[in-house]
What we know:
Distance between the termini: 33 Å
Helix content: over 70%
Low-confidence stretches: none
Order of helices and strands: HHH
Strand content: under 5%
Radius of gyration: 25 Å
Mean pLDDT: 90
Structural class: mainly alpha
Number of helices: 3
Amino acid sequence: MVNALVETLTVFAAGLPADIDITPNDTGLPGISQLKTIVGAIMTIGLILSVLALIVSAIVWGFGSNSSNPHLASRGKVGVVVSCAAAVVCGASVTLVNFFWGVGQAV
């Protein structure tokens, strides 16, 4: 049983091409440039929403602190941190993907 499995895998592996060389390109499918434009617009929307969330969270934080409402102030602080983290992720997304692409190419 094991010998038959090993023999089958050996025959299958012999049928595979020895060296596969595929690189990403932006001419293989139509609409790639439009997709890049859409992703850039979505990144802009994400950054604008991060700024809005930061402003609203700061207002909530200040209102909670000045009204002696620690729960509201705490929620505002969390909102400030989350909105800043969202801006970092939006801004670093291309760099992060390129970094992990490079890691994947090194494997």
